[in-house]
Specification:
alpha+beta; 8-stranded mixed β-sheet; 9 helices; 17 strands
Length: 320
């Protein structure tokens, strides 16, 4: 969001509170805020960069025969094993073999947030920014921690984990060996995920890797490319989820770990039922809101993910 003056921010927050006083105003604010949240959600979740979501409607889905929910049936590549991801509470999973498997749909929701009109006037940012920071953070953390947990389940089942406990930093040799874990199964590694501290090791690769022109630019500007060794590079700052009530957050992508993936069509499916939803209301002077989405994710071939662990990253279990 572009930077604006305090007077303008105060006016926006006052207008926001005033517009919440009637049903038509609440409906208009909800629609505008939802568009903003959806845009940021797509930008911030690294899971969505690895496996871009597809929108589906209820007409694309089937009823589950065992539960009061819906599923989408997806074909499995021959001789492959798939896993469907469950976002309800503590995520469960089951491996499936056969011609097809069902991806169940469940809801990820932020908590209810409340602010009074008086509190809105104390903020030095527009209230929509406050709503976005709270609601998006909750949803995207559930997406990312669940995705990483199931990636761990996949590599544990396949054994596609390369460990280098004696290597204190990332090297191109380690990366290439990590690629081979997928490439040896008649698949192609196309994407890497690492955290920003691991990415810092790239700055030390030097002339022999980058060549003169790139190396000189890296010295001045840092490594600014979205590819490395011909692979898409996704860098995240999420080493852990947010701590709650004094408890440490869950492990996501710590230093010393790199994940490798194939192209999305060989990796799996990420479906969003209809679209992300937002509820907003005002009771007396209290403004309440929450956001939620109904999604289904399935990994169509667990051989399409591998993991590199080096140095302090060896043995770290995501999702704990």
């Amino acid at each position: 969001m572009e930077k604006i003056g305090q007077a303008t921010t105060d006016a926006l927050n006052a207008a926001f509170a005033g517009q919440m006083d009637n049903a038509d105003g609440r409906r208009e604010l909800t629609e505008k805020t939802l568009l903003y949240i959806k845009q940021l959600l797509r930008e911030e979740s690294f899971t969505r960069k690895i496996l871009p979501p597809e929108s589906v409607t209820k007409y694309d889905l089937q009823r589950d025969v065992n539960t009061d929910t819906v599923v989408k049936v997806v074909d499995i590549e021959p001789d492959s094993k798939a896993v469907a991801l469950n976002f309800r509470g503590e995520a469960n999973y089951s491996f499936v073999t056969g011609k097809r498997f069902a991806i169940p749909f469940f809801t990820i929701s932020s908590q209810f947030y409340e602010k009074t009109e008086q509190e809105l006037f104390a903020y030095e940012m527009p209230v929509i920014k406050v709503i976005e920071e709270n609601s998006v953070k909750d949803i995207q953390e559930v997406e990312d921690v669940t995705w990483i947990r199931f990636c761990q389940a996949a590599v544990t089942a396949t054994g596609k984990i390369l460990t280098a406990p004696l290597s204190p930093s990332l090297t191109t040799s380690l990366l290439k060996d990590g690629f081979k874990l997928i490439d040896g199964d008649r698949l192609i590694t196309t994407t890497m995920l690492m955290n920003s501290q691991t990415w810092d090791d790239i700055l030390a690769f030097g002339l022999t890797i980058f060549g003169d022109s790139v190396a000189s630019k890296v010295i001045v500007d840092g490594y600014t490319y979205d590819q490395l060794l011909g692979k898409k590079l996704i860098v995240t700052t999420k080493t852990r989820t947010t701590a709650v009530q004094g408890q440490p957050g869950k492990v996501l992508v710590p230093f010393g770990q790199v994940w490798f993936y194939t192209e999305p069509q060989y990796l799996g499916r990420f479906y969003i039922l209809n679209s992300t939803k937002l509820y907003m209301d005002k009771i007396a002077e209290v403004i309440r809101w929450k956001a939620w989405e109904t999604v289904g994710i399935g990994m169509g071939n667990i051989k399409s993910v591998s993991k590199l662990e080096f140095g302090s990253g060896v043995g770290g279990v995501p999702g704990t």
